[in-house]
Design brief:
Length: 258
């Protein structure tokens, strides 16, 4: 696990975008795992700039998203499909047919998650997975207590996650209590993982993920076992790390060596 610490979220977003742009240039048919939440929005905007400047093209890229609220239609303005269209897919040249988001209205969710995993496998697996992190250290919707080997499935959200995400809904009661989510095991199979964390609200989660024990209590800590996982943080999110000064210079050197 490498921790890249930048002064600002803007700087960190650009560095993370460079990693993705580099992959897309090298392998225009790559498979991306994508994330929602406010954190990756700046990075998506940077990638959209690169497309506009004709530096990269997503024409042949395929994507699978991490998760979706269970019970929300793809047209609902808080669904993750809607979010992806608004914040990324509509800004780039990707073929929407190549973008996949779990169907929040699937009646048979078991069939839905099985088909989702099978489609990822058929595409050759995820080359690079983008992640945010919940304030309790969750990745996708793998809340504390999720097995570190878990697969895509129906999950129950914690009161904390419902509270954190209530800001996007009219009231907390409107936040769905369930979601379909890739599992920690599914995520860890991606060849490269890029996790973004910004702001002081994420400092405890980052501390737990990077310097805590590997535990289902903080599912991002499973990335300590991953061979190519990169955390892009701003100074606030990295503020509780014991070895932050060391990571600050080592991370950038590792990035340059990559
Ligand atoms: C939700 C999503 C996660 C995301 C998290 C943090 O729980 N399922 O994928 O990382 O929110 O969101 P934000 O980036 O808005 O803080």
């Amino acid at each position: 696990m490498e921790v890249i610490i930048c002064k600002t979220a803007e700087e960190a977003s650009r560095l993370a975008a460079d990693m993705i742009a580099g992959l897309v240039k090298k392998n225009p048919k790559c498979v991306l795992g994508l994330a929602t939440g406010s954190t990756p929005v700046k990075m998506y905007a940077e990638l959209a700039k690169d497309v506009k400047a004709k530096k990269i093209s997503f024409k042949n890229v395929k994507s699978w998203n991490l998760d979706e609220y269970y019970g929300l239609a793809p047209t609902h303005d808080q669904s993750y499909r809607y979010f992806m269209n608004e914040n990324f897919f509509d800004l780039i040249d990707i073929d929407k047919k190549n973008t996949h988001v779990l169907n929040g209205l699937a009646k048979d969710w078991k069939k839905e998650v099985k088909a989702y995993e099978a489609a990822i496998a058929k595409a050759g697996g995820i080359d690079l997975q983008v992640l945010g992190i919940g304030s309790d250290g969750h990745i996708a919707f793998n809340e504390p207590g999720s097995a570190l080997t878990s697969r895509t499935r129906l999950v129950s959200l914690t009161p904390q996650t419902i509270k954190d995400n209530a800001r996007f809904f009219k009231k907390a009661a409107d936040v769905p209590k369930y979601a379909l989510s890739m599992g920690v095991g599914t995520i860890c199979e991606a060849k490269t993982v890029v996790l973004l964390a910004f702001g002081k609200n994420k400092a405890d989660a980052v501390k737990g993920a990077v310097e805590g024990g590997i535990s289902q209590y903080c599912t991002a800590s499973a990335l300590q076992m991953h061979q190519d996982a990169w955390f892009f943080c701003d100074e606030e999110a990295a503020s509780k790390l014991k070895l932050k000064k060391y990571y600050a210079w080592r991370g950038l050197e590792e990035l340059a060596r990559r």
